[in-house]
Amino acid sequence: MIELRKDPITGRWVIISKERGKRHPVDSRMITDVQAGFCPFCKGNEEHTPPPTLVYYDDPKTGAWSLRVVPNKFPALRIEGSLLRKADGMYDKMSGIGAHEVIIETPDHEIMLADMPVHRVRNVLQAYRDRILDLARDTRFRYILVFKNHGYLAGASQTHSHSQLIALPIIPRRVSEEIDGSTDYWRHKQRCVFCDILNREMEDRQRLICENSHFAAIAPYAPRCPFETWILPRIHRTNFEMTGDLELASLAELLSIVLRKLNAALETPPYNYLIHNAPLHFEDREQYHWHIEIMPIVTHVAGFEWGSGFYINPTPPEEAAAFLRSVRI
């Protein structure tokens, strides 16, 4: 059973998915399996995943692949079925319709994203773009979230380098808050708030980490965790999937630099990254600016944060940015 249930007080939607309870978390048994040669994502074990929705080949004649995208074996949402909304007494719920895919970033179990050559990182970003464009044709979906959990403390259940994509029938509350905030800013100033942030950081340079011709990486002014990093396109862009090939190569270069700097500075921390993108079929293109948020796991969310919604960050972003600028990779 998979369904979405709405909190009647906050309006927050929760996915109830018994499928997710069937997966095995990373533990000593998994490590032993990997050491014994079993990992469902490794080259040669393709039959242990569902059939792929996308494959990039190094050599199509031999079947040697460089990247595979497969449906998640234990999905948070399922693509089959109709989108049904109904009342449950005073409550609201919805059928658990969506798509949940895994981007297997490499056939090699030992290589992490930060260690890949830039053209391989570009392939990962291109896979995100290709799958978003394909899934966006399904009229049941309103938002597609791309994210990566790296390391057990970041929520990864497999050590093999991978990221995930979930297509949702609703716009997540976190995204709606960003859309609403950027829309309010536009109404008052007739400017994109993200463009203004980027212009300020490029001019001030205290929180600028690195940049290239198409993108800039910054430490946000009010970061939720130490060394939180944003990567933004320098030219206003609403949708990630509209990024061209040249820009994807430029993004791959900068993302690779940022991940390697974080690894060097923080001794290869677990981290989450996610692409904050505009909702599907979003018309207000002047008001939103897509970006990547990278969250190293170096502190823990505790009772105060859960109870108040405040975050406590012991590292000022100016210090974090200065330190990352100084890191040699």
Keywords:
single chain; 329 residues; alpha+beta; HIT family, subunit A; 2 domains; ten-stranded antiparallel β-sheet; four-stranded antiparallel β-sheet; 7 helices; 24% strand; globular
Would you kindly provide a written description of the structure presented here, covering whatever features stand out?
The structure is a single chain. The protein has helices at 28-35, 118-135, 173-189, 193-204, 245-266, 303-308, 317-326, and strands spanning 2-6, 13-17, 54-59, 64-71, 85-88, 91-95, 99-104, 143-150, 162-168, 208-211, 215-218, 229-233, 271-276, 291-296. The chain is α+β, with helices and mostly antiparallel strands and 329 residues long. The strands form two sheets. Strands 3-4-7-9-8-13-14-12-11-10 form a ten-stranded antiparallel β-sheet, sandwiched between helices. Strand 10 (208-211) and strand 11 (215-218) form a beta hairpin. The radius of gyration is 20 Å and the shape is globular. The model is unreliable at 26-33 (pLDDT under 50).
Task: Please render the helix and strand layout as text.
Elements: E1 2-6, E2 13-17, H1 28-35, E3 54-59, E4 64-71, E5 85-88, E6 91-95, E7 99-104, H2 118-135, E8 143-150, E9 162-168, H3 173-189, H4 193-204, E10 208-211, E11 215-218, E12 229-233, H5 245-266, E13 271-276, E14 291-296, H6 303-308, H7 317-326
Helix pairs in contact: 2-5
